[in-house]
Specification:
This protein has helices at residues 8-16, 96-101, 115-126, and strands at residues 3-5, 21-25, 36-40, 43-46, 49-52, 65-67, 80-90, 167-176. The strands form two sheets. The chain has a five-stranded mixed beta sheet with strand order 1-3-7-8-2. Strand 4 and strand 5 (49-52) form a beta hairpin. It is an alpha+beta fold. The protein is 15% helix and 25% strand. The chain has one domain: Archaeosine Trna-guanine Transglycosylase, Chain: A, domain 4, CATH 2.30.130.
């Protein structure tokens, strides 16, 4: 069984039933319909003991160390998801309904924007534009030309910057009970 990492606020959205979609970079090992994945989340480790970040009140930073989601062992998982649909889509084609299914709330931006605007902000925080010295073409909001100078295995996260409107895998899922 494979895992899939989420930011803490998105794990909370899964727990509350607000998140039923996720967009990911296209990979050579995509998830398939019917596949059950365990949700990886940020967790805390105390020497040889491990505890989930859920959050733990009054943590003494000297005894506990925060661990990134990507290193979370399966035995600590609290949630599982089952893939119900997979499709490819350009990231800017997301609709308000889909952005809401991504777990976005208008409260994330003080209620001043729609779900798509919030999704764009979150996407930009995860996949920022390339540093100027690394970018062989002009960077502007109107630049929709995907970089073709790298092979897929050498892609960097800035290849998925919003202004490039990259193709992504859209995974729809339902939360499963513990296995």
């Amino acid at each position: 069984m494979r895992g899939i990492s989420f930011q803490p606020d998105m794990v909370q959205a899964i727990a509350e039933g607000r998140k039923t979609q996720t967009r990911r970079m296209i990979s050579n090992w995509p998830h398939k319909v019917g596949e059950v994945l365990y949700v990886k989340e940020q967790w805390w480790k105390r020497r040889s003991l491990a505890s989930l970040f859920s959050p733990i009140p009054n943590i003494n930073e000297e005894k506990w160390r925060r661990q990134p989601a990507m290193f979370m062992p399966r035995k600590l998982t609290r949630y599982y998801i089952k893939i119900t649909a997979v499709r490819t889509q350009r990231v800017q084609e997301i609709t308000e309904v889909e952005a809401q299914a991504e777990g976005m709330t208008t409260l994330m931006s003080n209620g001043k924007t729609g779900y798509c605007d919030v999704f764009k902000i979150v996407w930009h925080s995860l996949y920022p534009p390339a540093p100027k010295e690394m970018c062989p073409h002009p960077r502007s909001p109107d630049d929709n030309v995907a970089p073709i100078y790298r092979k897929r295995k050498h892609q960097k996260k800035w290849d998925y910057a919003w202004h490039l409107n990259p193709e992504v895998q859209v995974y729809e899922f339902v939360r499963e009970e513990k296995l």
